[in-house]
Design brief:
alpha/beta, about 40% helix, binds ligand V47, TIM Barrel, 4-stranded mixed beta sheet, about 375 residues, 4-stranded parallel beta sheet, about 15% strand, single chain, globular, 14 helices
Length: about 375
């Protein structure tokens, strides 16, 4: 069967077919990706009201793409006190924040308890807040530094109030590329293992992919397929009749643990050690988003993370397979340190207006994609 026939019939695509998708013109790709997106999420564009907190930037690892870590590059290393963190949470709750997204560096000077107390403190005061925290890379670092097994850390996270795991630390799974850009950090195998364990607890997480640096198209397809494979395993592990069979028929709340969203992160090039010639064009970014929608037939949402793609392109991406913009963010350090224009977030009213003027329907969601308000 030809690639186009398979796309017409919504059939699962393999590695060679995934790679061949890049040879299609952008609008053909967009047409098929949008068809899947419409089937899964109609013309809704999801966003949430969230706040990113990065409690410390002091890092023992040396990822070349990272401009956030204070280990070698900048002299502004910081570690927030719990009081400082709580003050941020107190302030942001007043603005209607529903999710706190906490990601730290791999700081050798703080204890696992230091992290856990942050989660407990927030959850005790604001039980309604969703805590999305601890990338698989952080969990792996706790194992390397403090000899905590993955399962021990995951159980502690749950006991102390973490609701879901963010998708960070995945970068690009191909081992040869990983060796060059983030040697020593969590391996691809372990990143996937940690998410599998988390899903086995009936919990949700996201998966990212950092692209537009030294990887090529084949590495991106390989990355997406490793994520699809784990999602198949997690769905099987959590055996639910309602769980999706392969081939896209996801309904709301049908998943019982697994990946909620795939997030392609566009590489930002400022203030880091990874020197790249040329910038990834918008066509390649949109193609990659569209291809992720077509390949990841078992993941309900594709997030065009506006902080790394710009808000304009993230809006266009909504017609090329994406259905989510992430959130208002309010304050962001990881990508903005590397040149992204996300330092101060976006206002909810801007989101709503921009989505509406794109002819789509803004939907404020919670962290697990339950709909809070539809702005018709
Ligand atoms: O893993 C670091 C990336 C990630 C750069 O789960 C960079 O909802 C671009 O994972 N250019 C952390 N990206 C952030 C993250 C995330 C963001 C938004 C939502 C979610 C979610 C997760 O940031 C890291 C790394 O891949 N990153 N440096 C850079 N120069």
């Amino acid at each position: 069967m030809s690639l186009i026939d398979k796309l017409e019939n919504g059939q699962r695509l393999g590695y060679d077919e995934g790679l061949a998708l890049y040879d299609l013109d952008l609008f053909t790709l967009g047409k098929y990706a949008n068809k899947v997106r419409q089937k899964l999420n109609s013309n809704k564009v999801y966003f949430n009201i969230n706040r990113h907190i990065n409690p410390t930037n002091l890092c023992a690892d040396t990822c070349k793409f990272c401009a956030f870590s204070a280990h070698r590059k900048n002299d502004n290393a910081y570690t927030m006190s719990h009081e400082e963190i709580m003050k941020i949470v107190d302030d942001t709750v007043k603005n209607g924040t529903k999710e706190i997204h906490i990601v730290s560096s791999h700081n050798p000077f703080v204890t696992p308890q230091w992290y856990l107390e942050i989660f407990k403190m927030i959850k005790q005061k604001y039980p309604f807040l969703h805590i999305k925290a601890m990338t698989a890379a952080e969990i792996d670092y706790l194992k390397r530094k403090h000899a905590l097994s993955y399962e021990q850390t995951i159980d502690l996270m749950i006991n102390y109030g973490v609701d879901s795991m963010p998708g960070g630390g995945a970068e690009i799974f191909d081992e040869s590329i990983r060796e060059k850009i983030c040697k020593g950090k969590v391996s691809s195998e372990n990143w996937l293992k940690i998410h599998e364990l988390w899903h086995k607890k009936g919990r949700f997480s996201n998966a990212t992919m950092l692209f537009g640096h030294i990887e090529d198209r084949s590495h991106r397809i390989d990355h997406m397929l490793r994520i699809r494979n784990l999602q198949d395993i997690s769905l099987q592990n959590n055996q639910s009749d309602a769980n999706i069979k392969q081939g896209v028929s996801l309904g709301k709340n049908e998943l019982k643990g697994g990946f909620n969203a795939f997030i392609p992160l566009v590489y930002q090039r400022d203030n880091n050690y990874l020197k790249i010639d040329g910038i990834l064009g918008s066509q390649e970014i949109l193609k990659t988003i569209a291809i992720s929608r077509l390949l990841l037939d078992n993941i309900p949402h594709i997030k065009a993370y506006w902080a790394t793609s710009t808000l304009n392109l993230a809006l266009i991406a909504q017609e090329f397979g994406a259905d989510d913009l992430d959130g208002t963010i309010e304050n962001e350090s990881i990508q903005s340190s590397a040149g992204a224009k996300s330092k101060n977030g976006q206002s909810k009213s801007d989101f709503i207006e921009l989505i509406q003027t794109s002819g789509l329907v803004p939907v404020q969601r919670d962290s697990l994609y339950n709909e809070i308000k539809i702005y018709n």
